[in-house]
């Protein structure tokens, strides 16, 4: 009989994130190749893990078509040079794809079926804009099950403002600006770069170059700039490009292992999984999804929100993060939250983002032995939220000096 | 010393008309250490089917880019320069179409000098240069890498080579000097001379790395990323580049001259002294032992200029074009849509030839192949041989276990001819006699479907005569292979007056599927190759029976530059076969072909000729001498006379074949001789050689080609 096991996030790496579209750095790079580079980079950095010990490869993508359509986990495993004996599959939970890859693999490890697994995600939103291959069932509209606006994420974000009038555009703009500033500070301090895998890229003239940093950052953004931006989702609305995550291309990959494998292979994990949960909400206001999922995850972990020392919340929209913080009574600019910036600054390649949150939380854990628990959480289109709570193996029980 | 900067290259501008320019685009790459590498990408804007080539406009642009980078290097803006290619290709070398129309020896020298000027810059930028050989790198493409300070290679690159000697020239953009100084003389001899002469063999990336041509090798999946990281390591001193094959003092002083001497001896015994480029290359490699790079480059300039304007290069380019283009679009082949789909192949016979056919058909077509013979024992032996050969391929890793099992399962043998009923394509490999072949086809015709294609591998019998007793002669086609079947690329596809387009089309489609080049010929005795080889062998035999020693005859043929002497060839194809072919040709054309009854006596001996260790024929064996003695005259024919006879004989026979429309054009004859008999590129097969030697003028008062295919040096 297999034994119930602890689950560890051993390591994670990702490609630099690129701006989606013709002018973006990955326009001439295949989606699956992005996932391959992330996988190779991660396996090289974790050479102590024999490749044939990988029990499964889960890779998420929202638009599973074309160059991200061929059972990604399996095809990427082959392309990345993993042995033929390593299986793989594809996953989709829209924005929480990579997070679901991790929790699915974690569950398999947790019940003792797997020892080591790879979990990640990729989204090339330039080549596969969200929804282009979707054919929504007419019943959604005919039976008034879901408002058509629910399929436009910006429209759902406007609805959060409607529901919580005390959450203002000014607060949202400030959150967006701070995200840009925090990301740049993290870059300047060299916090982000160690977990990036460089990617050879080709421009429109065929010239090769190298992607080494996230492309879409705008560190100079001011409140005045933001105040002047259009509100594309509603006339005189509140959601702008400056408070939304940009369309992004990128891939992430993580290495997970059970307690036995960690011991056997002599690994030094970066995080231990405590609990995870997903929850559904009204699709028209999908951005509040992480509130119930976080409550569920806390309940499973036997923790309260005050136990969480670091938050990595996906900034699909500033307002959507603020709504969660407001719900739990946390300040918009609480230093525990997205300390190194978030998706508004570095981008949100849908099904890849979950693991980026984990990579960033893991890196902060290493610097913060005073912190015991951290939360990664994100909202999901069509009204869902996902949350994972992690424990810091570096935690020493001492207060921060 | 040549000051390349003071040379006026403007005469080359005329050659840039129509050049597909490979552009040099630069992007700065920031390496992990913070250092900046300016990365040049060579890209002609076409897909991989039109590789990057290096014409004058391309080189000029690259030169300007490198000059600008040298300035930036001087200003401290960049720490290194990298150069790589578009997907799958670094560069396939100089643009050959340019080189054939340089117009003058001075311009030919300018082509060499421009290459030296520009590529040489890669070693003089003030910062290290890194060639990232991401794919195909031939000739000038590889010389880009050799001129760079460091080199990495993509483990999946298609091929790496210096094929110049194959085409009658030499690596003239630094390769002949730089390579031996990088990887040692013995390795360089292999790459520059031996490989091109082995049917233009090329290196796999791992071999190039092993030889020391490349400093590092990385897998394709992250080749450029790994290479840039490696370059960063070299720049920061984290990685020390070791070159274990770089020649030291002792190698230069002792090993180098010995290796050159041995190579020269090998060359002389293997290819004779007619081909110019291997010896020019040898001299360049010899001299690369000492002196400066500038001196080496100047030697290459002169050598390339000499060769480019010579007859051998002109003929080689003609031959290269035939093989690259004409061979792929066979003249006279009917629409391929008329071809019958071949789902099962029948081979009549189970001997060595039949077994070789079976192996080729099953490997290439992957359909059931049936062999048969007179009795079960012969059939079993044939099947066992084929299974053994498949086993050898499996042992070498060329086939995996499933594929080998599949092939073994597809090959069966029987003595029950009714099993041929569902064969779509039946080829015979039985004794070379009309009656035997007629009987075999007569029997099989009653069994196979009415539209099944019948093919005969006859080498000299009349296909029409073989088919004359068939109920449906229109489905019979000649399908003549050359020995060794697995290696020689030619199949003469013979059409009779009655052959239907469906049969002919099927033959061409099958030939292509077999990986061979089909050439259409009329149903004339000996078709193309054997008719002309019979001329060569007949003239050799004539001289011997007149009283010339065998060794003298072999030597007299040397200027032809054929892959082997006439008696060496006879010994290879077999004396019985040769005697039979001579009889056939003499019967057909008694006034033009030579045969001797005594030949059949010789054919019965175990060993007819003595050979040296290089395989060259040195004379008759004692038994052979005894056999021929009563029939040999006392008149030793001078070498020049023998050569003239064979030259004139070939010119005459080819002229007649063209008049008889055996093939549509003389190009097809040359193509057959190159692909079926290995006649040399430097002769362009035969006709450019016969034109330039004056044989065509002597025999029919004109030339096969107007103007004759000559080097620029001989024109005007």
Morphology of chain A: globular
Query: Main β-sheet of chain A: number of strands, strand sense, barrel status?
Result: 10 strands, mixed
Count of separate DSSP helical elements of chain A? 12
Q: Briefly note the CATH topology name of the largest domain in chain B.
A: 2-enoyl-CoA Hydratase, Chain A, domain 1
Mean pLDDT of chain B: 95
Number of structural units classed as domains of chain B: 3
CATH superfamily of the domain at 7-126 and 246-390 in chain A: Thiolase/Chalcone synthase
Distance between the termini of chain A: 46 Å
The number of strands of chain A is 12
* CATH class membership of the domain at 7-126 and 246-390 in chain A: Alpha Beta
The helicity of chain B comes to 40-55%
The CATH topology of the domain at 7-126 and 246-390 in chain A is: Peroxisomal Thiolase, Chain A, domain 1
What name goes with the CATH superfamily of the largest domain in chain B?
A: 2-enoyl-CoA Hydratase, Chain A, domain 1
Strand content of chain B: 5-15%
Structural class from helices and strands of chain A? alpha+beta
**Radius of gyration of chain A, Cα only, in angstroms?**
20 Å
Low-confidence stretches of chain A: none
**What form of chain B results from the Cα inertia axes?**
globular
CATH architecture of the domain at 7-126 and 246-390 in chain A: 3-Layer(aba) Sandwich
CA-based gyration radius of chain B = 28 Å
